[in-house]
Amino acid sequence: MSFFSRLPVGWLYRPDFPFSFARAVWTWPVVGLLLGVIAAFFFVVLIHIGLSPWIVAFATLGFQLLITGGLHEDGLADTADGLGGGKDKEHKLSIMRDSRLGSYGALTLIIILGLQASALADLTKHIVHATETIILSAILSRCTIIIPIYYGNPARNNGMATQLSAVPKPAVFSNLIICAIVPFFIYPWHFAFITVLCCAIIGWGMSILACRHINGYTGDILGATQTLTATTILILGSLFS
Question: Any transmembrane segments, and where (predicted)?
């Protein structure tokens, strides 16, 4: 929770308990569930206040960025800058580590956040379905991150991604099973199947893209995977409503 959000959970830290980021992978869907519930609650409150759909959509997006610190969106922007503007592996990795925002990253964020806002604005017509979709996007997008990790290797020999090079297989399978099953409890089977298929395509696609460009994944690649998956699920939710 302290890594994926800005929520005040530091008091839960135990110095006598050795923390392993790889071992904690099984908690990612739980973190997504909590963040999704918080965002969905905020979304519903704004609707009941009587705000317009577009204000509700952008305010919800802003609230989500506030509680997550824009962690995943930052990864998406860095990935777009690096893969779009880099000449070779080292140059791309160097750009991705640069904190400055480039044109590729800026344009990508504008498009992605615009798509999310459009989907959320459309979802305001169906409150129950909207809350389910927001929560589902938060859970499945964090489950999908496991695909590039499981089928790739860290592109650098340092950084956050290296801590995920030895994720326990039970944690991997728990994420994949959640991603494959949860949509069927919310959507009709054919809609659920499309949702799961899209998650798999994005996860595999980002794995292939990362291996082709930088020979592995980085934290930015994982953030991009999460954001693209969440955006896709919101768009699908607006179609299924």
Answer: 26-47, 101-121, 133-151, 171-187, 194-215, 221-240
